[in-house]
Structure formats: C-alpha cells, structure tokens
Amino acid sequence: MGKRRRVDQPGSDDTAAYPRHIPLLFFFSGSSALIYEVLWARQLGLTVGATTTAASVVLAAYMLGLALGAALGGRWADRSVNPLRLFGILEAGIALAGLLITAAAYRLPALYLPFAGSEDGTQVAVLLLHFGFGFGLLLLPTVLMGATFPVLVRAMGTVGTRRLGHLYAANTLGAVAGTLAAGYVLIAWLGVIGTSVSAATINLGVAFVALTIASRREGDNLAVSAIPPKGGHQSEQPPGRTSAFPSTMLLALLALSGGTTLGTEVLWTRILVFPLLSTTYAFATILAAFLGGLALGGAVAARWLCGPRMRWKAIACLTGLQGLALLIPVAAIEPGNAVFAMIQEWTLDHRLLSLTGHNVTAFLLLLPQTVSAGALYPLLLSAAASEGDRAVVTIGRSVFVNTLGAMCGVIVVTHWGIRMLGILPTFAVLGAVWNGVAVLVGLRMLGRSWTFGTLFGTMAALFVIVFAWGPLAATRPSPFENVTRLYGPGSRMLAYREGTETTLMVVEFANQLRALRINGFEAAGIRGDLYGYMRLMAHLPILIHPQPKDALVISFGTGTTVGAAARHPLARIDVVDLDPGVFDLARYFEAANHRVLNDPRVRTVVNDGRNFLQVTDRRYDVITLEPMPPTFAGMVNLYSREFYALSRARLRPGGVLCQWVPFHLMSLHESLAVLRTFADVFPQSSLWVHRGSGFVIGTNRERLTVDGARLAAGLDDPGIREDLAWVGVGGLVPLLNLLAWGPETIRVATASSPVVTDNHPILDFPEVPFRLSPRSTLAATRVWRAQAFVYGRRKADHPAFANLTPEIVSALVRAREDYDYATIGGAAFELGDLEVAEAMFRARLAACTLDPCRAQGAFWMGLLAERRGDVAAARRYLEDADRLDPGRVAIHDALRRLSAAAGSK
After folding, report:
1. Which of 606, 690, 607, 619 is nearest to 657 (CA)?
2. How crowded is the C-beta side of 754, counted as CA atoms within 13 Å?
3. Which residue has the higher pLDDT, 225 or 481?
4. Which of 795, 556, 517, 823 shows the shortest CA–CA distance to 663?
5. How far apart are CA 149 and CA 168, in angstroms?
6. How many angstroms separate the CA atoms of 19 and 94, rounded?
7. pLDDT at res. 102
8. What is the mean pLDDT of residues 735-752?
9. How far apart are CA 663 and CA 689, in angstroms?
10. What one-character DSSP code corresponds to residue 5?
11. Please, which pLDDT band fits residue 651 given cuts at 50, 70 and 90?
C-alpha cells in the first residue's frame, strides 16, 4: 500500500470535484435507516408498551447509539486507509444486525418480562428498564449507523460546507424515501419481516457497490479519500481572519440545534394530528415533511452558503431565522387547519389525492423551520471542523454532541415542555432561546458588518416580544380547534388538557350533551344513540358469564363502560388507560359513569392495555376493551391475533372477552378481518350490533351459552334496567335481538378474510386514511353496507339459548324477522339498490301485524316512491303511515316536503 495522503483538512478545496457516487450511496443508506427506525419502534412498542414515555426512552436509547457511533466513526475514519471500504463493511454489519433484531422480535417479551416484574413497578424503575432494554438491543446497529457519516466525510475528501451539505441532504432525502416507503407501502404489502428483509437488501446492495468501488480504487494504490481534488487547495478560512466563534460555542449551537430539531418534531406532530388524526399515514406524512425540509436546507447550504466568506454570516442569520420560524405555529394554526379542511373537502375520500395534499401542506407549514435547521447543520459542522487539524475526528465529535442534544430535546420537550407549559408555550420558549442566541451571535459579529447590528436589534426586539407573548399562549382555551365551528352555536369547551400522551378536550353542546375529544377525534360522549354500545360492552359479557367475580376494562374514555360494569356485584374492577388525563376529566361525565372512580372496587392503571396484560399475573372472568379505532396508529396492537391469544391467557376458565368492532370507521373488508382474527383465537364467538356499532364476544368455554334467565334477572336490577333503557333496549327480547351472528356464521362469513397479526398489521393501513370530509357520506355508507351484509346473513346458529320460555322464543323470532326486513331494506335504500329495498319493505308490510310496525313499513314505501318520483304513491303511503302511527315527526316532515315540492311546480 502506498503512503496515505491527508486531504481531509480544512484547507482542502470544497469547490473541487469529488466522487459523485458517495452521496447516492448515503441516500440509500438513509432510506434503510429510517425503515429500520419505523420497524424497531413498532416491534419494541409491542414489548415495552405503546405509551409516549416508553417510545421516548427507546428513541433516546436509539439516539445514544447513533451518537456513540458518530464519535467512534470519526476515529475509525481518521485511521482508515480506505474509508469507502470501511463504509461498505459498516453497511453489511447494519444489514445483519437489522435481520437479527427482526428475527428476535417475537422472542423479546420472553427476555423482557423476567425483569419487568408486575404492573406495580415504580415509574423510575420501569423507565430505566425500557431504556436499558432498548439500548442493549439497538446498540450494535445504531453504533454502525452513526459511524457511517464521518466515514463518508473522510471518503469525500474535504469537510467544507458544500460537500457536507450534499452529503447531509442526500442522506436526509433518503430518510424521506424510507419513511414514505415504510409508512405507505412496504409494511402494508410485505409485513414487518418482509420490510426488514427489504431494508437489509438495500444495505447489502450499498455495501456491495461501496466495496466494489473501493477495491477498484486500490488498483491505483491510493485510498479513496486520498484522490487529490482538482484545482489544488484553498483555505476555507480567509487569510488574516480567525474563527468568528470559539469551538465550545459551536458545539453548544450543535447541541441546541439537535435538541430543537427533534423536540419540535414532537411538537409539530402533536399539532398536526388534529387535522390529520393519529393514523399511521399521518405520522408518516409529518415525519416525511419534516425530513424533506431538512434535506432542502442541506441542499441550500451546499448550493448558496458554501463560500468561505459566507459561512459565518450565514450561521449568524440562520440562528435568527430559527427564532422567527419557531413562532410560526402560533400564526399558522388557523390558516393551516383551513387549508387541511379544504383539501378534505376537495379530495373527499380519494386516498391518493388526500395523501398528496396533506404531504404538501405539512411540508409547507414546516418549511421555514426545517430549511433553516437543515442549512445550519452542515455550516456548523464545517465551522467546527475548521478549528482543528484532525477534521474527521472533529466531525465525529460534533455529530456526537448534536445527536446527544437531539436525545435530550425529545425527553425535555415530551416530559417537561408539553406537560408543564403546553405545546404553544414550549414553541415560544424555544423561540426565545434561539432569539437570545441570535442576540449573542449578533454581538459577536457586531464589529464585522453593519448587517449584524441590524440582526442584533431585530433579535433583541423579538426576544422581548416572545417573552411577553409566552404567558398569553398558555391561557388560550383551545389553540387547535374552534369548538363553535365544530359543533355549532351554543357549544363551549369545559376542559382542555395537554399531557404527555394526548391533547384532551371536553366539549358541551347546545343541548347540554358532552363529548370527549382526544387529539381532535371525538372518542366518547353522553349520547345513547351513538355511544350506547359502551354500556352494552360491560353488561352483556358480564351477564353472559355464569358467575363473574372481577373484570378488566381496557380504555377508560368517559368511564361509561366502567360505570356500567360497576352496576354488577363484582368484587374488583381494574381499568387501564395509557393517558392519566382521562381519569382527571371523568367528573365531566358523571351522568354516564355514575361517579365510578369513587367506587372502592375500581382500581386504575396508567399503561397501554397490551403491556398491562403482558406484565400482570392476574386472571379475570371478564375482559372488555374499546380502545381508539383500529385504523389509528398503534391501535392494531389491540386487534391482532397475538393480542387475542394474550387476552385468552389472562382469562380464567369460562372467561369472556368483548371487543369493539366500529363498522363506521372501517371498511367491510377490515371489519371482517377483525372478526376472523378474533374467531381464530375464540372459536366460540358471537357478533352483537347496536345502532351500527358492533362488538364481538368470545369465551374460552367449549360452547358459548346465553342464559335467558340470567339476562332476565339482570334486567330486574334497577341500575342495569336504567342503563339498558337509556340505550333503547327495554326488555329481554330487544336485548337478545342485538345478537347478529353466532360462531358458525362468523366462521363462514369471514372464511376468505385475512388474519390481523403483528407481522401483517393490515388495519394500520386503512383504505381511506384521513378525517372524513364534511360532505363525505363514507361513515354512513359503511354502516349501511355492514348492516346489509350482517343482517342479510343472520342465521339461527346463535349461541345456545338456555332458559327461554316458548313465548320469548316466539317473540324473538318475530322481532328478528321484522328487524332484518327493516334494516336490510333501509340499507339497500341508502345504498341505491331500490329493487332490494322494495322487496324488503313489502315483506315487512306483509309480516307485520301491529300498527306501529305497519306504519314503519308504509313510511319506507313512501320514501321509496318519492325517490322514484311517484308523488301520488308516496303521499298515499305516508298518509297510511300517519294514520297507523299518528304524531311521528319523520312522517310529517316527509308529507310537508311533498307538499312543498308540489307547490313549487
């Protein structure tokens, strides 16, 4: 080997040509790194929990590994004769480590649980366990990943702004591609294991290309980084000038830059989930938009800010721009929400248009801050490298400091900023910090140019404005949503909480009813028609169990389900929710939860439901859960086959599990997948439907039996009877009529549906990913389509009914027939299948013997005739309906509508 020539010093010509393949290699390296990050966050979340706290400490462990890798990589690169070969070896190591982690993922609980103990562990001990577990598992691949940047800097030949900017931009742009690929395509199509193999294949491809090029370069007896740049050498530092900032100040700026960048990503995510909702697509959109801005900033630095005389001025100006950009969320919230609303209105339910529109809008909102941060980073790196004679080592140390700052930024913002100050005040504090830094930078540069005198004055003024505005931001009642616009005049907000996990709001309507909104989604409320299933999800499984002693309720919400469970003579009720804020807001929903938190039998636990079931050693007679919709990010963990198997293991013999199936928030295909997955673990299952919402009940007994005498005894209890009457179920027959499918029908109807697993979390990738447009009828269409499918296949294979009198059986048969005709006909009518609708309505008229029933059939026939334009027939049917059931508002409204239409002609 020839003697290695050192050309990685700051004196090298940054404007000279360099190997163009190096940024391309780093592009693909960045894409695989983000794919791994998405996968590992998902896989570790299954073990240590899906709370924000667990996720943040795992991310901290991930960032610490990257930081250590950067520091080591600088030293390895400095000693390397052929850094491109070293890079290829690192990429191959990342591929192997990534595959090993993915392969071991499903064995992680067995390694974790012996240390986790029970659910009663102290918070500090749990956090330390999460951090140690994540750090130990991710140490090898993250160190290898962190080392790649300084190694490639060595391969580039110089540490000037231009080359650092190109390298940073390429890697970050690759991260955008990896984020979009994993969030939109790869996991949905290939599953977790297949996606991991894809990422490893990218790494191996990069390694092969790098090693091939490195071996060819060895033929010239030169290291890759030793190729002399064309045009000789040119100092980055103008003659006679010294560095504008000391190295300690540059390192401090790098740490602050890293902390602010990753911390504000958390803040922006909490803001943008309001218009986008908490779906996997939304989080991929936000992350891709954030990284895209950083990549653009790096390209800007490489293109326009790379001159040796420009660097210090650019650093000074960009610090001020960061302070300004951090104030943008305050002014951009309302217009940003309006733009998102317009996109939802224009695109309706078109998935591709929605994804594109939301990505572009999020990118534009984040643009000022991310571009300034992305441009500042390579400038600071090149400035730091110019301070020493071992530039690559300095680069590694600088990246180490920046990454540690990023790790601290996530922890501080998540666990102190949001919790103690709030989202907008945290932005204000960060803006004030950067404005203060800009003032110091301006003072430092004051004697060099009048520009910095202007910068100093401007930043000083903004510094004062931010501190004056900060306390006001904390007093805003709801900075992200206009309650009156959402719910109409007379509505008001009763409570607002910004916590570590979510943003919570309690809204009261003009009619005094209330709703709980979680990150902009109405999750629960006090309405019998819409949220009645919550009470039924406690009453039915408890009444179906022959002798229940205790129950577990996963997801507290408004406390409605827990309050219903407390109506029964249970000895203990455990309730788990990952957000402690919902327990604090329970007092606003006492009309629904019956002040259940005052019940000594109720024990609250702050955790996610799956992690609780993993670490607890208790067994339950009844488990019921109604988490956020399964299409929300992370919620699929509570709808997978592995979760149902875990739940079955936590049931005593004869135990019952009840799971929500929200037909209006999923396609029929997705709903059937939930039922198929549930029945895979609980073959003895039954589907129950109340006003469009479904819930499936399963047991580990050999056969699911519904004891009519036990249900009737439950209805004799005043509290239970009051609850059921409130949701429109006023007797034994209406209660039994909620049963739609038994075990055999579920098996046949879902035979061709896929099974939801941890490896293939298909519910994480819904067909229509974003909030429904105001003009969208998708939710109603989904309900009608589901009801037509369900009731069109309702059979007599119901669970074994015991202790039903012949009179009850006869009444139930009539009620089922009547309800099925009405529901299938109504669904066909709403979906536009008028021939099926007419057949069902006529069959109902023929089967009915009571006037109210015949009136309903005549009413539907009147609406059908009106839809077809036969006004005379419509009037005749509606007048018959009014005669049979006088006083019904809907019938009178339809008659007035016909009269108004006739008068206008």
Report:
1. 619
2. 16
3. 481
4. 823
5. 9
6. 23
7. 87
8. 95
9. 10
10. P
11. very high
Residues sharing a CB contact under 8 Å with residue 832, sequence separation 6 or more, in sequence order: none
- Characterize 758-790 residue by residue with b for buried, 16 or more Cβ atoms within 10 angstroms of its Cβ, and e for exposed: bbbbbbbbbebbbbbbeebebeebbbbbbbbbb
Question: What is the CB neighbour count within 10 angstroms for residue 701?
Answer: 16
Q: Cα Rg for the chain, rounded, in angstroms? A: 32
Place of tokens 């090993």: 100
What is the predicted pLDDT for the residue at 15?
Answer: 44
HSE-up of 867 (CA within 13 Å, CB side)?
A: 16
- Among 253, 236, 249, which residue's Cα sits nearest to residue 306? 236
**287: burial class by Cβ within 10 Å (0-12, 13-18, 19+)?**
buried
CB 838 within 8 A of CB 853: no
Q: Are 458 and 447 in contact (CB under 8 A)?
A: no
Query: Tell me, what amino acid is at 623?
Result: I
0.85 exceeded by pTM:
yes
d(CA 639, CA 673): 10
| Residue 186, token pair as written in the block | 């790869």
Structural tokens at position 784: 């009608």
Contacts of 105 (CB under 8 A, 6+ apart): 43, 46, 192
pLDDT number for residue 388: 56
Q: How far, in Å, CA of 21 to CA of 88, rounded?
A: 13
Terminal-residue alpha carbon distance, the chain: 98
Q: Which residues of 385-399 are buried (b: 16+ CB within 10 A; e: fewer)?
A: bbbeebbbbbbbbbb
User: At residue 278, what is the residue type?
Assistant: S
503 forms bridges with which residues in the sheet? 498
Q: What SS3 class is residue 880?
A: helix
The β-bridge relationship of strands 503-508 and 492-498 is antiparallel
- What is the enclosing helix (H) or strand (E) of 508? strand 503-508
Distances (CA, A) of 73 to 98, 152, 211, 337, 394: 19, 10, 18, 43, 11
d(CA 541, CA 556): 17
Q: How large is the average pLDDT for residues 792-812?
A: 89
Looking at the DSSP bridge assignments, the partners of residue 605 are 576
Number of H helices and E strands in the chain, helices first, is 34, 14
Residue 482 burial (CB count, 10 A): 11
Q: Which long-range contacts (CB under 8 A, 24 or more apart) does 513-520 make?
A: 514/588, 514/589, 515/487, 516/557, 516/558, 516/582, 516/585, 516/588, 516/589, 517/481, 518/579, 518/628, 519/270, 519/273, 519/274, 519/277, 519/278, 520/273, 520/274, 520/275, 520/277, 520/480, 520/481, 520/771
CA–chain centroid gap for 567, Å, is 34
CA 128 vs. chain centroid, Å, equals 25
CB 836 within 8 A of CB 786: no
Give dist(CA 521, CA 268) in Å, integer. 17
Going by C-alpha positions, the residue among 526, 764, 450 that lies closest to residue 634 is: 764
Q: What token pair was written down for 854?
A: 């015949």
Helices marked H in 727-850? 732-736, 743-749, 778-792, 806-831, 834-847
Query: Which ranges of 218-350 does DSSP label H, i.e. alpha helix?
Result: 247-276, 280-304, 311-325, 328-347
Distances, alpha carbon 268 to alpha carbons 274, 282, 512, 647, in Å: 10, 12, 33, 35
Task: Please give the full DSSP string across 381-404, using - where no structure is assigned.
Answer: HHHHHTTSS-HHHHHHHHHHHHHH
* Residues recorded for the chain: 905
What are the tens digits of pLDDT across the range 588-638?
Answer: 999 999 999 999 999 999 989 999 999 898 999 999 999 998 888 889 999
Q: Count CA atoms within 13 Å of residue 805 on its CB side.
A: 8
690: DSSP letter: E
- Between strands 651-661 and 684-690, the pairing is unpaired
The tally of CA atoms less than 13 A away on the side-chain side of residue 78 is 17
